Amino acid sequence: MMSNNRADYGSASEWLSALKQDGLWLSQLQRLQAPEGSNISVNREEIMLQIGQGDTFHLWNICQHKVEPVVEEVWEVAELSLIKLKIQTIAMLSMEWLEQHANGGVGVGTEEQSSAIVDLLKPIFYGSEQEARAFLESIQGMKPTQITDKVNQLVGEKKISDLSSHRDLWKVLHDFDLYKRTEANWNMQVK
Amino acid sequence: MAKTKTAREELAWIERTFFKGAGLAKAIRMEGDERRDYRLAQVERLLSDMRIGGPLAVCLSDEFWTADEGRRPMPWEDTPPIPEPGYLTNPLLSVEGQQTLTDREMGRLRLILEIAGLCHDLSLHFTFDLKEAFGIRKNDFWVSNKQLVEWLTTTGYEHVAMHTAYIMKKHAIDVYELGHYLPAQDELAELYSEKHRQRLGYPNTTEIPPRDYASTIIDSLVQIERHWQRGRRLKLSPDLVILHDEIYGVVPHQFDKGVLAAAQELFDYMDRELYGLFVTKDFKPWDEQPESYRQFVSEALGRFADKVREVRSKYLGKGWITDGSLAFAYLMEHAQQCGRGFWREEDNAL
User: Fold this and answer.
1) Subunit contact B199:A84, Cβ cutoff 8 A
2) Looking at the structure, do residues A145 and A116 belong to the same domain, yes or no?
3) What's the pLDDT score for residue A105?
4) Residue A25 falls within a domain, yes or no?
5) Which residue is closest to B286 within chain A, CA to CA?
6) Verdict on whether the full-model pTM lies above 0.90
C-alpha cells in the first residue's frame, strides 16, 4: 500500500517510482494492455477528465506530455493533495502509454500523415514547423473543448495567427478527424 | 563583494527607483486613514508595475528582507550564499545607519518601510495585520470575515485585493489539508475561471484581470463556507459532510438525499468497524511495519472498498465512485485516516 503522506518521500521522483509499483497503476496498465473493445478497455475522455483543467493539465501541455517534469513541478507547489496528484498522474501515464502504443481516438496515424498535417498547419503557425508539430503532439488524446482551449491559449501567446485560428485551423483538424465537431461549434469556442 | 553605499545614498536610490513623483516628502506628515490610503495606493502601484517581469513590489521588499515569512534581513553582500551570524544588512535597517539620517529622511524611511513591509507580505503571500493594513477589525483571513470580503470586493486597490484573496486561498488550503478535507483542498488548488476559461494560476503571472481573479477565489471560498453552514443547519457531523463531498469528488452546491444516505451508511461502517483500528504504539513508517500488521490493514481497507461498492450499487448507480476514480480514492484515504483515529467530534466542523 502506497503512503499518501508527502513526508514519507524524499522527492517527487521517489513518489513517482512508488506509484509505478502501486496496485492502482498496475491494474490500470492491465486495462490499457487489454484488447480493444474488451469490457475493461479504457476511455480517453475519462482519462482526460481525471487530469482536469487545472495546473497539472497546463503543465502537462507545456512539458509536451512528459509525466516526470509535471509531477516535479506540482510537487514543488504542494497545494494539491497527493491523492489527486496520484489519480492525475495515473491518467497522464495512461495517456503516455496510449500515445506510445495506440492510435485510436484523437491522434494521428503514420509519420507520413503527421508530416502532411504539419505542412498544412505551418502557415497557421506563422510558418513555424516546430510550433505546428508541438501543437499536433499536444492535442493527442484531447477532447474537443481542450483543443479549443489550447488554440485560445496559443492565439493569446501569438503563436497562431488570429485570422487563421477559425476556418483554416478547424478545416485541417476536421479533415484529419482530429476535431470532429462542426465549424460553428469551433467558432463558438475559439475567441 | 560588499556594497559600499551609505544609508543616505541607499535611501536616495530607493526613492529614485521606487517613489519618483510619489509625493513621499509630503506624505510623511499623514496619519491614520490618510496615511493608510497613501500606503495602499503606493503598494497597489508597485504590485501592478510589471516592467521587470514581476511586480516591482518584490524588488522593494528584496532591498530589505529575504523571501521568508516575517522580516529576515536580506544579506547586504552578494556572497556568501548562506550568511554567517551577524552578517551585513541594508544600512537603512541598522541603528548606526539610521543615526546618520536627518529627521525628515527618517520620516521618509519609516513610511518606505511600512510600504515595503506590505509589499513583502502581499507579493510573497504571507498573512499580515489586517487592521493595520486595511483598517479591518478582525485579523482573520477566513472568508467568514465579512468586513474583509466586503473590502476586497469593493476596493479600488485591485492588485492588493487579488494578492490578499490569494493569501486567503493559501490559508484555506492549509486548513483543509490539515483537516483532511481533500475535495475542498483540491478544488482550491486547481481553481479555474469559467469566465476567462483558464486556470487561475499564480497572481504574479495570471492573465485574468485582478478583480475577476479575486472574485473567483472569494466565490469559491464562500461556496464552501455556505455548504458547511447548510451542513450545520442539517445537524450533519463533520465526517458525514466530508464523506458526502468525497462521493461527489468535489464540493457540491447542495446536499443530496441519496448521496447523504450513502455517506451515512459509510459513516456508520467506519465508526463501527474502522475507527482507531490501525493505531499502533509506535509510529513506524508503513514499509517498516511487520507483515502481519500490513496485511491486517490491507484486509480491513479491502473490506471497506467492498462496502463502498455495495453502497454504490445500493444508493448511487453507474458512473458514481468507480474503482480508480478520484472519489473512490478520497474515500479510501478517509478510511485510512479513520483507522488511524482521525475522526472528528461534533464541534470540529471546518
Assistant:
1) no
2) yes
3) 46
4) yes
5) A3
6) no
